[in-house]
Write a structure and sequence with these properties.
The protein is of the alpha/beta class and about 180 residues long. The chain has helices at about 35-45, 45-50, 90-105, 125-140, 155-170, and strands at about 5-10, 20-25, 60-65, 75-80, 110-115, 150-155. The chain has one domain: Leucine Aminopeptidase, subunit E, domain 1, CATH 3.40.220.10. The chain has five helices and six strands, in the order E-E-H-H-E-E-H-E-H-E-H. A six-stranded mixed beta sheet has the order 1-6-5-2-4-3, with helices on both faces. Helix 4 crosses helix 5. The longest helix has 18 residues, at about 90-105. Bound molecules: ligand AR6. Ligand AR6 binds next to helix 1.
Length: about 180
């Protein structure tokens, strides 16, 4: 059966019904700002405690923890590349999406929600990042047995429009957005 792609405007910490949300983390898996700050605030201090022995992680890597006080049972933390510093950026960003999906698959999760990794504090140009994200998801999807739903949660209307536009070229979906 297929994998469904959803693109929504929203907040990554408000995704009930999703097995794992993906954190655009820092190497030390500490709270920080942006997505990571919001996730740690909502999850409570138990998340930072669980993260401590798993850090540091390298660009492209993914680790899984519990969701603590979040509505989701799991969080998958990935470290995106800092644009202009961690090279090659596109391969490292693709590794984030691929490794998060693999980890979800290993844990037999059926749904996960991604933010637009690296496009905030890490400075990755949004359109280039959307191409890498959607292309990697489309390439990885056929091998997934457990993951049935991939949701991309965009923080702004503009980013949602961008993803919808880019997905036409990179996600070979049917009319139900399934691959
Ligand atoms: N829900 C969904 N998307 C969000 C949210 C949210 N609550 N908040 C921000 N975004 P960023 P990065 C969007 O900076 O670039 C942190 O300080 C945001 O508009 O969270 O990978 C960490 O500690 C942008 O499009 O992640 C790291 O040091 C995207 O999510 C560093 O930032 C990613 O923005 C990671 O930087």
């Amino acid at each position: 059966m297929g994998v469904k792609l959803e693109m929504v405007k929203g907040n990554i910490i408000e995704q009930p019904g999703i097995d794992a949300i993906v954190n655009a983390a820092n190497a030390w898996l500490r709270p920080g700002g942006g997505v990571a700050g919001a996730i740690h605030r909502a999850a409570g201090p138990g998340l930072a405690e669980e993260c401590r022995p798993l850090a540091p992680i390298k660009p492209g890597e993914a680790v899984l923890t519990g969701g603590h006080r979040l509505p989701n049972p799991y969080v998958i933390h990935v470290l995106g590349p800092v644009y202009g510093r961690d090279k090659p950026e596109d391969r490292l960003l693709a590794a984030c999406y691929r490794n998060a999906l693999r980890l979800a698959e290993d844990h037999r999760l059926s749904s996960l929600a991604f933010p637009a990794i690296s496009t905030g504090a890490f400075g990755y140009p949004p359109r280039e990042a959307a191409v890498v994200a959607l292309k990697t998801m489309a390439e990885t999807a056929p091998a997934l047995k457990h993951v049935k739903l991939i949701r991309v949660v965009l923080f702004s209307e503009g980013d949602l429009k961008l993803y919808e536009e880019v997905s036409v070229g990179y996600w070979p979906f049917d009319k139900n957005m399934q691959i």
